[in-house]
């Protein structure tokens, strides 16, 4: 089922906003060493993220910083609900492809193909992913359809 042109996805909307890390750390009065201790993310990596040297860190690193700073993933992964693809749902859950695949009972390559909408999304797969992502199967199906209907050359 194709999406109407008004429902097609503009991937430029997807934004990873890392500014809250420094803002919240400073508001708490924490040093980078303190955040390192609480998040198990190296001071070097924290500094690189805060200074914009690392613009797209590993999502599990982001999740550790989010947890340590008492933030939510949606505070840093800024993707409007109506344009979220399967990879966005995974990022909002703070999971790598490997972690999500393992927890959902599939191989990482199989999940990668689903995220790119190169294979069909079955109800069984959607339910398995929804359980791990803490969402509904219909949300997973909708995210997959957005990936399926994205413009050529657009990442999923």
Which helices and strands occur, and which strands form pairs?
Elements: E1 15-16, H1 19-28, H2 32-39, H3 43-50, H4 59-68, E2 77-78, H5 86-92, H6 97-104, H7 108-115, H8 123-133, H9 137-148
Antiparallel strand pairs: 1-2
Descriptive keywords:
156 residues; mainly alpha; 434 Repressor (Amino-terminal Domain); two-stranded antiparallel sheet; 2 strands; disordered N terminus; Transcriptional regulator, XRE family; DNA-binding transcription factor activity; DNA-binding; TransReg_Diox_bact_type
Please describe what this structure looks like.
With 156 residues, this protein is mostly helical. 53% of the residues lie in helices and 3% in strands. It has a two-stranded antiparallel ribbon. α5 (86-92) crosses α9 and α6 crosses α8 (123-133).
Order of helices and strands: EHHHHEHHHHH
How far the N terminus sits from the C terminus, by CA atoms, comes to: 18 Å
Note poorly predicted spans. 1-13
Which percent band covers the strand fraction? under 5%
Indicate the CATH topology of the largest domain.
Answer: 434 Repressor (Amino-terminal Domain)
CATH class label of the largest domain: Mainly Alpha
What's the β-strand tally? 2
Question: Which CATH architecture of the largest domain?
Answer: Orthogonal Bundle
- Share of residues in helices: 40-55%
Overall shape: it is elongated
Number of helices: 9
Q: Looking across the biggest beta sheet, what order are the strands in?
A: 1-2
Q: How would you characterize the largest beta sheet?
A: 2 strands, antiparallel
Structural class: mainly alpha
User: Cα-atom Rg, whole angstroms?
Assistant: 17 Å
Write out the CATH superfamily name of the largest domain.
lambda repressor-like DNA-binding domains
Chain-averaged pLDDT: 91
Keywords: DNA-binding
Organism: Segniliparus rotundus (strain ATCC BAA-972 / CDC 1076 / CIP 108378 / DSM 44985 / JCM 13578)
GO molecular function, one term: DNA binding
Protein name: Transcriptional regulator, XRE family
